[in-house]
Amino acid sequence: MRKTFSFVALCFTVSAFAAEPFDDKFRQLDEVLPSANSYRTASGAPGAAYWQQRADYTIRATLDEAKRAITGSEQINYHNNSPDTLSYLWVQLDQNIYKKDSDARMMLTQPSREAWAKPRTPEDGYKFEGMRSILAGREFDGGYKIKTVSAGGQPLKYTINRTMMRIDLPTPLQPGQSFAFNIDWSYNINEQQVLGGRAGYEHFEDDKNDLFEIAQWYPRMAAYYDVMGWQHKQFLGSGEFTLEFGDYDVQLTVPADHVVASTGELQNPNDVLTATQRDRLAKARTATAPVVIVTQEEAEKAEKSVSTASKTWHFKAANVRDFAWASSRKFIWDAQGFKKDSTNVMAMSYYPKEGNPLWGKYSTQAIIHTIDQYNKYSFDYPYPTAISVNGPVGGMEYPMISFNGPRPAKDKKTGALTWSQQTKYGLIGVIIHEVGHNYYPMIINSDERQWTWMDEGLNTFVQYLAEQAWEDNYPSRRGEPRNIVDYMRSQNQVPIMTNSESLLQFGNNAYAKPATGLNILRETILGRDLFDYAFKEYARRWKFKRPTPADFFRTMEDASGTDLDWFWRGWFYTTDAVDISIDGISEYGVSTKDPEKEKAWKKAQKDAEPISISEQRNKALPKRLSEHPELKDFYNEHDEFTVTNKDRNTYAEAIEKLEPWEKKLLAQGKHLYLVDFSNLGGMVMPLILEVELKSGKKYIERIPAEVWRYSPKKITKLIVTDEPMVSLTQDPYWETADIDTSNNAWPRKVTQSRMELFKTERDRNNLMRDYNTPLKGKGDKSSKDSSSE
Fold first, then answer.
1. Which of 165, 224, 686, 758 sits at a 20 to 30 Å CA gap from 771?
2. How does DSSP classify residue 610?
3. Which residues contact residue 720 at a Cβ distance below 8 angstroms, ignoring those fewer than 6 apart?
4. Between the CA of residue 160 and those of 218, 220, 292, what are the distances in Å?
5. Is the overall model pTM greater than 0.85, yes or no?
């Protein structure tokens, strides 16, 4: 529809509708975020008085392979760097989650009775694995057996509260003081594929061997920091771990024929490695491809005999927040050094033969790729090793070591190893993700027990960037806005800013949505240069420190010079979705005041109107004027579109009064379109408009989200073109996760789909037929005949 502006009324502003109460989507976050102080500044950086605690560990542990148990003793040297006096310490006892009466086990709920009794599909029913886990958990003797807690040879009073232990200090620990104490403990290792969890053993029935992935295995100091005080929320399974940095000295005694992968650097290679293995490791340091340290042939040979002797592997790790390890005689081991800028790391993979050929081909390569890419967006990897282990845990991260699950499938009949595309990219993706966790949160040490998104979401975002640098069209599961649309449409949501244990749709909420939001922030809102600088500044500021959500939000705004409170509020604090609709368009032209042009335009508009049905039929009627032409006069030759001399004189007088710039503006001949937009989803977002002109030319016009500032539900935007516009598309590249693209175009586009036709299946539930169906392996005999034999 085309209309005209009078010249004096022409206005290039956004008009707004204010029919409903004002909902300020751009309200600042000051009322939500904690006040800045000397510990954490308003810019998002650590303050001048920032502090954090420290805990150093000396651990001696023995793996009893036959009993599948660990016995250990540790000394913790706790440093009180806070300004507070502490009368007690809290220690995490994560293994207590496997106790028969643990909160995690007791709080489990089940599908409804209807789902148990009448499952609509096999997926609705109860699975073998689920029932096995429940029953095994009722029998497994899990949790720590604490033998002693002492200091200086004297016992300490302690209280165990489920997965936490309070140690009462003999005298208060003053600021700047340290306290060393000892804990002796043991526990039984869970079978991971039965009881689940982030660690455990896997049994291989074919060769009667076990593979152990050991984590959350020693009593660990709970975190104490300025925002939370003691972080002693119970470990329920979803909220991960909040820990302090420290140095580790760890000796692990295992069967002599085991190979151990561990956090830290091996201190006694001469005691535990052969000369050949040490030589291969030396070559791997400068190799251009992975070097096999323990070959598959050597691992298969080790599988066939179980040593009764033992070896002690000694590792040290500096400035890490945790320590994990894996042990098995089944391990194949390959390694390759990677050195770039200040990074000098040995990338290593450990995997059983069941992981080949995928693991030998991709694992170590994926480690190096991860570090190379993550360094670009954060900081140079600072640790000496980075390890990927294949075992029962699908994906879990620790400093310098990660546990990753995907492996080929073995055909039960032929024994052939095959894998799907999903398995291949699942392996590459999970290694990138878990190795990437070294940056978030192993070094940028966020509180995982409180905010899952701060490690999983940020890491998933950088994982997406790294995956896209692996190959063209890498099938990333998370990061692309179009992949989050189904979740954003769903009803069963909570905001990202929800405590870890209360999250619904955990993967979508804590991984995919924050990663997608950061991708939108990078590509659509800030642009890559501004975003990458700010994101890297956040990593630099909080390297080896503990940031909170406020520190991230404030740093991104501070370093990019952009007010993003509207984005954090909408994307992180609400469940609003993006759904922007083009509601209508009106075309306007600027009146030239020239009567020759303007009356011709009006006549053309009139001629374009549809002829009424009555008028069409009246054409056939005989007319008196046709029979008596003498009745014609002036008005039969002229109408309201006739240009008169008065019109011409008025135009000449008006033009004479105009300034040169005003005459030029009249002559430009621009096409003006008023476009009405509605924000149906609630989440404000920039407008990305693809304009197509009559000549076929297309261009993108990007309008910042602030266009919604004064009217967050409905706005009207003026679009000016040099030639007629034939179509307009909002978000043409699907870059904002708009949940309904059917209202994104003018003219509306037809949505294409498929309708499936199904043949009617009569007599589906035929008990007589099913009863007499031949049993497999019984020839043609009926079930009745077979049962009587």
1. 758
2. P
3. 12, 670, 671, 672, 673
4. 15, 13, 46
5. yes
d(CA 536, CA 375) in angstroms, rounded, equals 9
CB burial of 748-771 (b: ≥16 within 10 Å; e: otherwise) equals eeeeeeeeeeeeeeeeeeeeeeee
Give the pLDDT confidence score for residue 60 in this predicted structure.
98
Domain boundaries along the sequence of the chain: 79-192+217-244, 591-613+628-667
How far is residue 728's CA from residue 536's CA, in Å, rounded to a whole number? 37
Alpha-carbon gap, residue 363 to 573, rounded angstroms: 37
Give the per-residue pLDDT at 129: 74
Q: Could you identify the residue written with the tokens 């002690």?
A: 312
Helical spans, DSSP H, in 658-758: 660-667
- Joined together, the tokens standing for residue 709 give 């500032």
- Smallest CA-to-CA distance from 262 within 316, 299, 196 is with 316
Token pair listed for 749: 């586009």
Per residue, the 3-state secondary structure of 537-591, as one string, reads HHHHHHCCECCCHHHHHHHHHHHHCCCCHHHHHHHHHCCCEECEEEEEEEEEEEC
Give the Cβ contact number of residue 619 at 10 Å. 8
Tens of pLDDT, residues 405-449: 999 998 888 888 899 999 999 999 999 999 999 999 999 999 999
Neighbours of 731 (CB within 10 A): 22
Please check whether residue 258 is in contact with residue 328, taking contact to mean a CB–CB distance below 8 angstroms. yes
Q: For residue 121, report the phi and psi dihedrals to the nearest 5 degrees.
A: -135, 165
Q: Which residue has the tokens 């977002």?
A: 685
- What residue ranges of the chain have pLDDT lower than 50? 1-19, 780-789
- The token pair at 675 is 């476009």
Counting every residue written for the chain, the total comes to: 789
Q: What pLDDT, on a 0 to 100 scale, did the predictor assign at position 788?
A: 37
CA distances from 680 to 219, 677, 773 (A): 51, 9, 56
In 3D, which of 605, 580, 587 has the Cα closest to residue 693?
587
Degrees, nearest 5: CA angle 447-448-452 = 125
Residue (of 534, 453, 431) closest to 43 by Cα position: 534
What are the structure tokens assigned to 502, written together? 């209360």
Q: 747 CB contacts (<8 Å, ≥6 apart)?
A: 727
Cis peptide before 441 (omega within 30 of 0): yes
CB 539 within 8 A of CB 377: yes
SS (HEC) of 376-438:
HHCCCCCCCEEEEEECCCCEEEECCEEEECCCCEECCCCCCEECCHHHHHHHHHHHHHHHHCC
Residue in 382, 385, 373, 372 with CA at minimum distance from that of residue 346: 385
Rounded to a whole number of angstroms, the distance between the first and last alpha carbons of the chain is 85
* Structure tokens that stand for 200 in this block: 């455990």
**Is the separation of the CB atoms in 444 and 546 below 8 Å?**
no
From residue 426, alpha-carbon distances to 358, 407, 647, 677, 687 in Å are: 11, 9, 76, 41, 35
What pLDDT shows up at residue 325?
98
b/e map 448-470, b = 16+ CB within 10 Å: bbbbbbbbbbbbbbbbbbbbeeb
pLDDT of residue 662: 79
Task: Give the residue among 334, 337, 319 at the shortest CA–CA distance from 383.
Answer: 319
Q: What is the DSSP annotation of 308-376?
A: SSEEEEEEEEEEES---EEEETT-EEEEEEEEETTEEEEEEEEE-GGGTTHHHHHHHHHHHHHHHHHHH
* Widest CA span in the chain: 131
Neighbours of 379 (CB within 10 A): 19
Q: What does the pLDDT read at residue 125?
A: 62
DSSP assignment of 200-224 equals EEEEETTTTEEEEEE-S-S-EEPPE
Q: How many CB atoms lie under 10 A from the CB of residue 120? A: 9
SS3 string of 613-662? HHHHHHCCCCCHHHHCHHHCCHHHCCCCCCCCHHHHHHHHHHHHHCCHHH
